[in-house]
UniProtKB/TrEMBL annotation:
Residues 16-34 have a biased composition (Polar residues). This is Uncharacterized protein. It comes from the Bacteria. Residues 1-35 are annotated as: Disordered. Residues 1-11 have a biased composition (Basic residues).
Length: 209
């Protein structure tokens, strides 16, 4: 006859499992155990930059500061571009969130040369400048890869904030933008193994294709 074991005396849910209600939760520990941070060295998981895919690659040593700055500038340019052409928001809401949440507080004030006699440039002038900036940036990227793979990887990591799938394409894109915008510092990082990416993001952004 099997020996009976005493059931642990604890508050239980209707299903019979031990209730975790009222248990003390350490917010910092919860943050460091998030799946998108867990692959980083423990001391880097608490860094605020670990919240974004671009920031995690920088903390892990795969990207330079100049490349990250170029990535952030590309994100802001994409937001400005979507606004001036009044692009429809995709059903997934990814681009909409990028525009409304990220682009708002991060958008830089117009440079001095975009203000004339203390008056900001007109909407038409702003539209022309944004379209020209996008044309030039896309041209730099296309000059290094006509297949579209670099643009897709920039979209995946910088815009969609999804883990990198092919870091070679990402670095080529960020390197070309960093050189073009002169945020470039010390060039390419040595290639190292990266963790397996998440599933391919199937969202399609009409403003990018």
């Amino acid at each position: 006859m099997a020996k009976k074991t005493r059931r642990k005396q604890a508050k239980r849910t209707p299903s019979g499992r031990i209730s975790t209600a009222g248990a003390t939760v350490n917010p910092r520990e919860t943050v460091t155990q998030q799946p998108h941070r867990r692959w980083l060295p423990e001391k880097m998981r608490k860094d605020q930059r670990a919240e974004s895919a671009l920031g995690r690659l920088y903390l892990a040593g795969f990207l330079t500061e100049g490349q990250v700055v170029a990535g952030e500038r590309w994100r802001r340019l994409m937001a400005d571009y979507a606004r001036v052409i009044d692009a429809p928001r995709p059903a997934s809401g990814v681009l909409a969130r990028m525009i409304e949440e990220k682009a708002g507080p991060d958008t830089e004030a117009p440079p001095d040369d975009e203000v004339r006699n203390g008056v900001a440039i007109s909407d038409e002038e702003l539209r022309d400048r944004v379209l020209e900036a996008m044309r030039a940036a896309r041209g730099e990227i296309a000059a290094r890869d006509s297949s579209g793979a670099v643009m897709r990887m920039l979209t995946r990591v910088v815009i969609d904030d999804v883990d990198v799938q092919d870091i070679t394409y990402l670095i080529v894109g960020l390197h070309s933008l960093a050189t073009f915008w002169r945020t470039f510092d010390d060039g390419y990082r040595p290639m190292r193994a990266v963790r397996a990416p998440r599933e391919e993001n199937a969202d399609i952004h009409e403003t990018i294709t």
